[in-house]
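Q: Hi! First time doing this. I have a protein sequence and I read that you can turn it into a structure. Is that right? Here it is:
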Amino acid sequence: MELMDQIKAILMHKGFIIKPPIIPIPDKVEFVHQDFLNGFFGHVRPLHAMEITHFYDNIENNVTSKALIMGFAQVVRDEKIRQLFERGTELTQNNLKRYMQKLHDEKLPSPSFLDHLVTESNFSPFSDKIMLFHKVDMFSMKIRAFGNSVAVNGRHDIGLSYAASLAKISLFVEEAA
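A: Yes, that's right. Below is the predicted 3D structure, encoded as structure tokens:
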């Protein structure tokens, strides 16, 4: 654990990773009103701590997933699996844009992409079957993460965003399976 803490501190110092967003402290007490769930029209409240936490966590997971699936698409031998991985990359990118935008709208930081770490190699260290299984498993875990995020969400716009992601990811996992 000490080693992990030291590595994390070094990576933060060098700017390779950032600290999760610090939750802004409100200027005044604001009680929940009927418009607490608003997200599209009228008064839209700022994100609460659990919404910020889940956006950040989903972004971190998707950033890793995107870099990995990009690398897998580059080295996989089967053309159908390559096309599936490319669709998975696009799907993940679209989710990332939406989630990062929500944090940026609140003037909060989000993790950076890892795409630059994907090399030009076309040598596959794994079989197509293992890479496909890994991505099906990883995308299945995203479904659980979106479900958890919806459960603590309090705004309609965020719920709709997660529901759209959930539907698309579910279809992707079904096809990949």
